[in-house]
Design goal:
Length: 140
């Protein structure tokens, strides 16, 4: 019979497209769940941050910053900033391109990540934040 397990985590970030490796927290939640086969969903509960899967090394961390700037330049005219006296329209737009969640199959107690794949949270906001993300495990 399948069941679910959910755990909430918080992570401190610097903002400005910082990519954080959260694989260890996800594995911890999976271990605590006792579930060995099913799906693991990782979801960030903010509209200026994203969750995905990536190789995690310093060159790629820098490339994410450069590519994010190409996708939605920080210094451009945005309605969100004009209408709300805000400064982070580019952060919202970068986050929505990548999306807030990723789902990874769980097989025989292991995440089915490839050798170089890590689960990453990217904070696109314009200042340091504490970010909340959820890990939900569904299976048996
Ligand atoms: Zn905003």
């Amino acid at each position: 019979m399948s069941r679910t397990f959910a755990r909430r985590f918080q992570v401190a970030t610097t903002g400005h497209d910082q990519m954080v490796d959260i694989t260890a927290q996800v594995r911890e939640a999976v271990t605590n769940s006792g579930i060995r086969d099913g799906l693991v969903c990782v979801f960030v509960a903010h509209s200026t941050a994203a969750v995905s899967v990536s190789e995690y090394e310093s060159g790629l961390v820098e490339d994410v910053r450069l590519t994010a700037e190409r996708i939605a330049p920080a210094r451009a005219d945005y309605a969100h900033n004009r209408l709300n006296a805000d400064d982070n329209a580019h952060s919202h737009l970068r986050a929505l391109v990548i999306g807030p969640s990723v789902t990874v199959p769980l097989v025989s107690g292991d995440l089915t990540l490839g050798t170089w794949q890590r689960i990453v949270l990217i904070d696109f906001d314009t200042h340091a934040r504490t970010r909340t993300f959820w890990v939900q495990v569904l299976g048996e």
